[in-house]
Amino acid sequence: MSCDCSNTPSNQPPQTPPASARRGFMLKFGIGLMGIGGAIASIPLIGYAITPALRKYKNSWVELGGTADFPEGETRLGKFTNPNAAPTDGASAEQAVWVRSYKPAQFQVFAVNCAHLGCPVKWFQQSKLFMCPCHGGVYYEDGSHASGPPPRGLFEYKWKIVNGRLLIDAGRLPGLEQTV
Amino acid sequence: MFRTIKNIGIKMVGGLLGWTESRSGVITFVQPILTHRVPRDAKWWYVFGSASLMFFSIQVVTGILLATMYVPSAAEAYSSLQYIDQQVPFGWMLRALHAWSSNAMILMVVIHMSQVFLHASFKFPRELMWMVGVLLLFCTLALAFTGQIMRWDQDAYWGLGIGAAIVDRVPMLGNQMRNVMLGGPYIGGATLSRFFALHVFVLPGLTIGLIGAHMALILKNGISEMPKPGMVVDPKTYVAQYEERIKKTGVAFMPDAAQRDMVFCGLMLIIVGLLAAYLGPVGPNGIPNPTIIDANPRPDYAFLWIFTAMALMPPQIETAVLLIAPPIVVLALLGLPLISNRGERAPSRRPGAVIAYVLIATALGTLTWLGVVSAWSPVMDAWTSMPTPPQYLVGRTPLEMQGALVLQHSQCRNCHSLGGQGGLRGPNLDNVGSRKSWDQLVRQVQQGGGNMPAYGKNLSSAETTAVVAFMTTLRNSGAPESNIPGAMERQSSPDQAPKAVASEAGK
Q1: Minimum-distance CB partner of A176 among B158, B168, B186
Q2: Which 8-state DSSP code applies to residue B340?
Q3: Which whole-number Å values give the CA distances from B23 to B17, B60, B92, B232, in the listed order?
Q4: Strand-pair category, A75-81 with A165-170
Q5: How many domains are contained in chain B?
């Protein structure tokens, strides 16, 4: 024997308005709590991710060697350890610059990074040119643009001499937007 | 006796299967996927998507195994790779498989995409499948780029430098974006770590998710049929007609289509396995020490066309192109099925699409080939490693001999070839004496021009005279000196080789 039981309200638990209102509130409350919790939790996540954009990385004066290591009329490779280096950097903490001494105690310190797209330029003493192996940028001995795609001359570091030692102001990878 | 054991065995397996099915519903879930109907004419053109998926699976497996040994630290990555190559049993083969299967995956994805484009399978109702596919293409390329960084060699280091220099060109925010990309103000340990996180967590996760969506869309919309001229896609009627045809003439994916996938994938797997065993792992190349400036950085094949574009673009438009072109390409690829989602699918009825495809493919292929040759790059060691061809010295005067020395020593051959050896950036000098007069040569050497640096301040006038004297002897056999006015001046010079000898020796 069958009956259309669904139509008899007495068999159903009473659907009281307060219950459904409570359920609606609970859902909104839950979404709200999740939202607040998520916002709080995401502060460190976003902060961590964009730290490199917000932090002001400072340059420091680092030593390249004695001025006698860079004789007049020559351009030599100078090496230093990045002052911003982290313990896990390994060999990538080592950095190089081209040091040109054109007068006694007068220097030009160039980034090895080509002003085009950052490849390492190489100095040729005989032709007095810097050449880039990537896209063929060429620079004169004073760092000015000679030929090829670079939009400017080589990036130059600030330098000073302290007690006969040559120091440069270094710390970041040079780029068009923010140079050395 | 045997028969009873067999029957018991069958019962046990059957029981196990039944139990698993009753608890999980796995067969009910998988069966419609395996037996979904595909068009009867979906034959060999349709295997490339499956092959892409297979190579991705190989990347996941070999990648997980490599992650058990690889150390993602700038201080140790390089030595851990050498350890895997040289000490760990099968380590080199694992790296070789990972590298060559990556190349194969890119190739399969590109062929798959070409087929879908040429057959216009992206039209209604498969627009979203195409878009997800485009995202998968970008994931594949991003995996390839970040994977190249994992090698942490000179190519990786300077490749990051190039990436950083490109990002740096974004106006206003360039430097900040670059620092986020590098994890600091320079390329170091933080850079490798974040590219590692991208390569092994973010991008594979994204790719797996997108593959899932791609497959779900296959089941929802079905595989497209081979295009026939005159069979137009009309969104109003397409779905009903497609389902009608599939019901009538379609075949089950398993085994009718799957068997072809398996044959092709098996073949590809064997080829890539043999290739990996024969060619070995890719890199690591030079030690990533930025003070070793004798680097000659080159990107992997998939990115050579970008490398070429950077060399050949006029510098004035470079930044604009770098910043504007990528969003346009992305939007064009994603928007393609929205612009054109109806009408003919057959390539013979879509000449514009075919021409566009041929143009793009030719351009990318040519740029890649030019990147392999990279004629614009000076050959940095040409001046020390490629001797002056002896026949160019026969019968020369002392001054001309001196000029040959100057030419060799001043790195001229880094950009100019002599006897087929040397750089390709400038014209070869084998018969420069027939092309240019004495005056023109002096002017070219001293003032440069046409993308040649000016040597005026770098060579003494004696050196210039010598090198020009040598170059005027470089002529085709029997050819007269350049007959352009000014050539006469050479004869007034006191130090001259006998003419006949000089021109004979030219070849």
Answers
A1: B168
A2: -
A3: 10, 29, 43, 46
A4: unpaired
A5: 3
Quick check: A92 and B182 CB within 8 A?
no
Asked if B172 and B260 sit in the same domain, the reply is: yes
Nearest beta carbon to residue A118 from set B74, B161, B177: B161
Confidence band for A177, pLDDT divided at 50, 70 and 90: low
Same domain, B163 and B186: yes
Residue B475 sits in a domain of what CATH number? Answer: 1.10.760.10
B492 and B442 in a common domain: yes
Whole-angstrom CA distances from B425 to A147, B312, B406, B451 are: 11, 11, 19, 9
Q: Do B185 and A171 touch (CB under 8 A)?
A: yes
Domain hosting residue B391, numbered range: 382-504
- Strands in B26-73 per DSSP E: 37-38
Nearest CA in chain B to A127: B410
Residues in A closer than 8 angstroms to B169, CB to CB, are 176-177
- Which residue from B minimizes the CA distance to A139? B453
Amino acid residing at A47: G
* pTM given for the model: 0.89
Specify whether B328 is located in the same domain as B396: no
- Residues B167, B152, single domain; the answer is yes
Q: How do residues A73-95 score in pLDDT, each as one tens digit?
A: 999 999 999 999 999 999 999 99
CB B382 within 8 A of CB B413: yes
B451 three-state secondary structure = coil
Same domain, B422 and B467: yes
Which tens digit of pLDDT belongs to each residue from B8-17? 888 888 899 9
The ipTM of this complex is 0.86
Burial environment of residue B203 by CB neighbours within 10 A (0 to 12, 13 to 18, 19 or more): buried
Cβ of B488: how many Cβ atoms within 10 Å? 13
Query: Token match 């292929």: residue?
Result: B365
